[in-house]
Specification:
Number of strands: 0
Low-confidence stretches: none
Structural class: mainly alpha
Order of helices and strands: HHH
Largest sheet: none
Strand content: under 5%
Distance between the termini: 106 Å
Length: 108
């Protein structure tokens, strides 16, 4: 609470002096607000962080990472091309063997 609000609360508590229960509650609220304000002032606002900040990567590291990604991409491209050639070759071999098998069975 701000000090203006505290002053207004104190003034309201004095005006309500005829009702003792209201005065007691108001005074207790004022004391609670003052205590809370003192505790808030006791807490340091800016404290130094204690953990270590991770340093950012340098330009050389980023260039190295990008080169590794490019080399990996080219490697994956060659591997997929090799698998495609292998699959085509296997299909041709299967078709030739099937044709030979049907010719052999017709011959008997």
């Amino acid at each position: 609470m701000s000090s203006d609000a505290l002053e207004k609360a104190e003034a309201a508590a004095r005006e309500a002096a005829t009702d003792t229960a209201a005065v007691q509650i108001a005074m207790a609220a004022i004391e609670l607000a003052k205590t809370a304000q003192q505790q808030a002032q006791a807490i340091p606002q800016h404290h130094q962080c204690e953990h270590q900040h991770k340093q950012r990567r340098s330009a050389g590291e980023w260039i190295g990472i990008s080169c590794a990604v490019c080399v990996g991409g080219v490697g994956i491209a060659f591997a997929s091309l090799a698998l495609a050639i292998l699959g085509g070759t296997a299909a041709i071999v299967v078709l030739v063997l099937r044709s030979m098998w049907t010719d052999y069975r017709k011959g008997k």
